[in-house]
Write a structure and sequence with these properties.
Number of helices of chain A: 7
Radius of gyration of chain A: 20 Å
Largest sheet of chain A: 3 strands, antiparallel
Shape of chain A: globular
Oligomer: homodimer
DNA sequence: CCAGAAACATAGGAGTCCTATTAATGAATC
DNA sequence: GATTCATTAATAGGACTCCTATGTTTCTGG
C-alpha cells in the first residue's frame, strides 16, 4: 500500500523529469540549428568547452551515454565543419583526443532555454533545494555506475561539508581555501579530484545531517 | 553580483537537469531496444498508452517537441511494426488519429531506469519537494507556451488547493470528491479538464501560501 | 463560393545510433 | 622477446530521426 504509493510517486517524478528533458532537448535543437549543428554535435561541443585538454572518443561516449561508433560519427561531422580536431594521445598511441577548435570555444550567444526561463519562477529556497536534490541524484547515478565520474564538489577530495554548520557558507573547499554554501555547490569543477572512500563517506554527510532547508537570503 | 550568482545557480540547475536527461535517454534506449524500438518510437508509444482515444499527428509532435514530418516518419515505422494504427478523425477528415495497437498497450516489463533507482535515495520529503518543483517548472513552461497543455492537477478545473491547510491531504479534487496531498499531485490525469483563468489563479496559490515543507510521514 | 489556414504526406538530405568487425597498440605472462 | 588477451578507435551497413520545402486535401470565415 505505502509501497504502491511510493512507486506511484517515483513514477510521477520520472514523468516530470522526462517532460523537462523533452523541453531541454527541443531547446538544444533550437539553439544549435542556427550554427548548423544538431543536438548530438552541440552536446559534444559543450562538453569539450569545459575540457580544454580534450577528451578521448571513449570518454565522450561515456559522458553522453552512447556507443563509441556514434561518437566517431559525430566527431567526423564536427571535424568536417572545422569545429573540433583530433590529436594523438602521447600516453597511448591507440587513443584519439578530441579538442574543440579555438574558434568553437567562445561562448556563443545561446538561444535562451525555455527551462532557464521557467527556473526564474523558483524561489531562492526552491532553487537551492532543487540543486541539492539533483546533486544527490547524480551522485546516486555515479555510485550505481550509471554514469562515469562527475566533477562535483560532493565527490571531490578537497570538499569539506558542514564545517561551519550555522552560517550561510557551511562548506569549505580545501583547494581554494574558501567557505561556500549549498547554492555554490558545483557539478563540473575544473579542479575536481576524485575523493577516496573515506573522504567520500564524509562528503555524503551533506545529505544527511542537516535539515532540508537551504540558506535562503537576498 | 547577486545577479551573477543567481545566473550561475540557474546554470548549474540547467546542467544538472541536462545530466539527468542524458541518463533518461540512455535508459530509454536500453529499455526500448529489446523490443526493436528506438527512443522516438518508445516515446510515442508511451504517450499513446495514456491516451486510449488516440492523438493526432500534430498533437504528438507538440507533445514530443519535434516537427510534424518527424512524427509521420516514426508513426510509419511503428505502423510497419503493427504497434499503432491510423484512424480517421470523424470531426475533421484532414486529420489522422494514431492509436496504440491493443497488443502494444500492456505495460511491458520495462528495464528499470537508473534514474528510478537513484530516486530511491531521496527521502520522502525530498521526493515531495522535487515533485512540487517539477510541477512548478512544467506549469511555467506551459504558461510560456513552451509546451502544450499538460494534464496536471494544478491546471485542472476540479482542483482545489489548500482546502484543509493543516492535514496531510490539504487539497481536494472536485471530480472524485476526495482530499489528497502534495505527493499525490498528478502530471497526467486522464480526467483532466483545463481550468479557466479564475480557477488557474487560485490553483497557483499552491506554490505561494504554504511553507516549502511538504507532508513527510510514514 | 473563394481565399487563406490547417492537417498530413512526400521528397530529399544530413546525421544519429546501433551491432559487428577489423586494425593497431598496450599489458601481462611465460 | 613472443604470445595472448584487453583496449582503443575506425569502418561498414542498416534503420531511423529530424529537418526544410512542398504538395494535397479539407476546413473556415467573409
Amino acid at each position: 500500500m505505502a509501497e504502491n504509493e511510493n512507486n506511484a510517486l517515483r513514477q510521477r517524478l520520472l514523468d516530470g523529469l522526462e517532460r523537462i528533458a523533452t523541453v531541454l532537448r527541443e531547446d538544444s535543437r533550437r539553439g544549435a540549428a542556427p550554427f548548423g549543428l544538431n543536438v548530438a554535435q552541440d552536446s559534444i561541443l559543450r562538453l569539450l568547452r569545459t575540457r580544454p585538454s580534450g577528451l578521448r572518443i571513449r570518454a565522450l561516449a561515456g559522458q553522453l551515454g552512447v556507443r563509441q561508433p556514434t561518437i566517431t560519427d559525430s566527431v567526423n561531422a564536427l571535424e568536417r565543419k572545422g569545429l573540433v580536431a583530433r590529436h594523438a594521445d602521447p600516453s597511448d598511441s591507440r587513443a584519439t583526443i578530441v579538442k574543440a577548435a579555438p574558434h568553437a570555444l567562445p561562448e556563443r550567444a545561446r538561444v535562451r532555454s525555455a527551462v532557464a526561463a521557467a527556473l526564474e519562477d523558483l524561489s531562492s529556497a526552491e532553487c537551492a533545494g532543487l540543486l541539492r536534490t539533483l546533486i544527490k541524484l547524480i551522485r546516486g547515478l555515479q555510485l550505481r555506475n550509471a554514469i562515469p565520474p562527475q566533477r562535483m564538489c560532493v565527490t571531490c577530495k578537497y570538499f569539506r561539508p558542514n564545517v561551519y554548520p550555522d552560517g550561510d557558507a557551511p562548506h569549505y573547499c580545501a583547494l581554494v581555501n574558501a567557505p561556500f554554501g549549498d547554492r555554490a555547490l558545483r557539478l563540473d569543477c575544473p579542479e575536481h579530484e576524485e575523493a577516496g572512500p573515506a573522504e567520500a563517506a564524509q562528503s555524503w554527510q551533506i545529505f544527511q545531517s542537516r535539515a532540508h532547508l537551504p540558506e535562503a537570503r537576498e
